[in-house]
Write a structure and sequence with these properties.
Layout lengths: L3 H20 L6 H8 L5 H21 L10 H5 L5 H23 L5 H20 L15 H11 L7 H7 L6 H21 L5 H12 L29 H16 L5 H15 L10 H9 L2 H8 L4 H7 L11 H11 L7 H15 L4 H17 L38 H6 L5 H7 L14 H4 L3 H10 L23 H5 L4
């Protein structure tokens, strides 16, 4: 209560200065008094100054009284011979710039009320600058968005010094707008690059803030519309990237990949693994680009255990990635290395391992030789690790394709009925045209040795290498192809051709 008279006095004083500046350009220096209160130690005085700045610069933006274009230095303009109106606009634009920078600093104020008010004011300026741009369009119809101002906002939200989770929860409402969501993703990439380049060891607070923001971003299900934009537009142009869903997907992928390529705290690896299958992978244009992150997560050990215990849908999602294209993608080696790690636990249920073995065996029927030489030992290793699955090769008269109970279209490995089936596909591959593939498939005819076969040398095997290897092999000694000498041109004695044509 003792502070109420001081706050009320500050409100009246700021109000008078605001009215004076808006009424007459000759009173422009009163802006310094308003900006000075933004530096106050008193929380209520700061809030009054923020509200005053919101009204002041909001009005100046709408009235077009801030300089538009590449902002020159104050000294150059004030000492020049240009008109008074231009000098006023440049001078006031510099004051607006100072105000925005201070508001960005206030996003880290100890008081949440001050943070929230500063965020709301900056976002108001973002909206007004979008409608009344402070830069000249490069061409007619050019899409203008106050990216520099918005990067200031995102930079304040992703503070390296303090937890901004509460303020980020307030920012989530802005992410409902397609333009804000798109530019948040792009600004996050720049901010992560800047902070990681600035700190030898990035503080955990920054990583937590970044994850909180990134995990709050979810892509729209339909193409953006003018009504879904925060910065009001009468219509959208096809030339604007922000108007296309595919560009949003590209920005989403770039945002996550640029974040996950860094060495993160262990707690964040766990958080990412929990959401990756629902919130990240379905939104990526190229889900295989996540293999590097998942490999690092596996190597940490803790996250490998997380996949088995705290991540019940993990194996279902991994199972769903197995389709014919998996043998032809650029990242095949890393994918199967990762899959081998995840399927190495002896605690996995037999039905799950059987489903993976059966899915891979079915896909092997149409796989190229270089992939088969890797996947066949992979399947045999699964059987070595999990003896309960050897029933799949001990059904010599088991069902074939027309009566196979296995359902290849079932997404849930638990419902695929793989354990009721058999690996008849491997028996079929024993008749493969390539002798090495036939030999690899024939391994299941004997008792499987206890030591696993290392698939590491086979992961990078290419068709070219197989061809070169075959060329270097020495063939068998020449053998006669006919035991009876040919009689006549067509080889039948006594026919017409044999009477007139003989082979010498």
């Amino acid at each position: 209560m003792e502070q109420e008279p001081g706050a009320a006095g500050a409100r009246r004083a700021l109000g008078r200065r605001l009215e004076a500046v808006l009424a007459s350009r000759s009173e422009a220096n009163a802006v310094f008094d308003i900006l000075a209160v933004l530096q106050s130690e008193d929380q209520e005085e700061i809030q009054e100054a923020v509200r005053t700045c919101s009204r002041l610069f909001g009005a100046l933006l709408e009235r077009g009284e801030l300089f538009v274009g590449q902002l020159p230095s104050e000294e150059m303009v004030m000492t020049g011979s240009r008109g008074a109106m231009r000098k006023y606009k440049v001078w006031m634009r510099h004051r607006y710039h100072s105000c925005c920078n201070r508001l960005g600093e206030l996003l880290g104020h100890p008081s949440f009320q001050v943070k929230e008010l500063a965020l709301g004011t900056l976002m108001k300026f973002v909206q007004l600058e979008g409608v009344h741009p402070l830069e000249k369009p490069k061409w007619e119809g050019n899409y203008l968005f106050p990216q520099d101002l918005f990067k200031l906002v995102v930079g304040g939200l992703l503070s390296p010094e303090e937890d901004q989770s509460l303020l980020l929860s307030q920012f989530r409402e802005y992410l409902d707008h397609d333009d804000i969501r798109y530019h948040t993703m792009r600004a996050a990439v720049d901010t992560v690059a800047r902070v990681t380049g600035q700190y030898p060891e990035v503080p955990p607070a920054f990583w937590n803030n970044a994850f909180t923001l990134l995990s709050a971003v979810s892509l729209p299900r339909q193409e953006p519309t003018a009504s879904s934009f925060y910065v009001k537009r009468t219509e959208l142009s096809d030339t604007w990237k922000v108007a296309h869903l595919k560009e949003h997907r590209k920005a989403f992928q770039a945002m996550w990949l640029n974040f996950l390529k860094h060495k993160l705290p262990l707690s964040l690896y766990k958080k990412v693994l929990v959401i990756v299958h629902d919130a990240i992978l379905p939104q990526l244009a190229q889900p295989t680009l996540m293999i590097d992150f998942l490999t690092r997560a596996c190597d940490l050990g803790e996250c490998g255990r997380l996949a088995h215990t705290e991540y019940p849908d993990f194996y279902r999602k991994l199972y769903g990635l197995l389709d014919p294209s998996v043998f032809h993608v650029k990242y095949r080696a890393r994918f199967f290395h990762l899959a081998d790690l995840f399927l190495s636990s002896s605690h996995l249920p037999a039905y799950l391992v059987a489903a993976f073995a059966k899915r891979l065996a079915r896909l092997a029927l149409t796989a190229p030789p270089e992939a088969l030489l890797m996947v066949l030992p992979f399947i045999c290793n699964l059987l070595r690790r999990h003896p309960a699955c050897r029933v799949l090769v001990h059904r010599p008269h088991g069902p074939e394709l027309d009566a196979d109970p296995y359902d290849p279209g079932e997404e849930d490995p638990a419902q695929s009925r793989a354990l009721e089936s058999s690996l008849w596909e491997l028996q079929a591959l024993q008749r493969h045209y390539h002798p090495e593939v036939s030999k690899a498939a024939s391994v299941i005819n004997q008792a499987l040795s206890v030591p696993e076969v290392s698939i590491a040398p086979l992961l990078e095997l290419t068709a070219y290498e197989i061809f070169e290897r075959d060329l270097k092999k020495k063939g068998p000694e020449p053998v006669p192809l006919e035991f009876l000498p040919a009689q006549g041109l067509l080889g039948r004695p006594g026919d017409v051709c044999a009477q007139h044509f003989t082979l010498s």
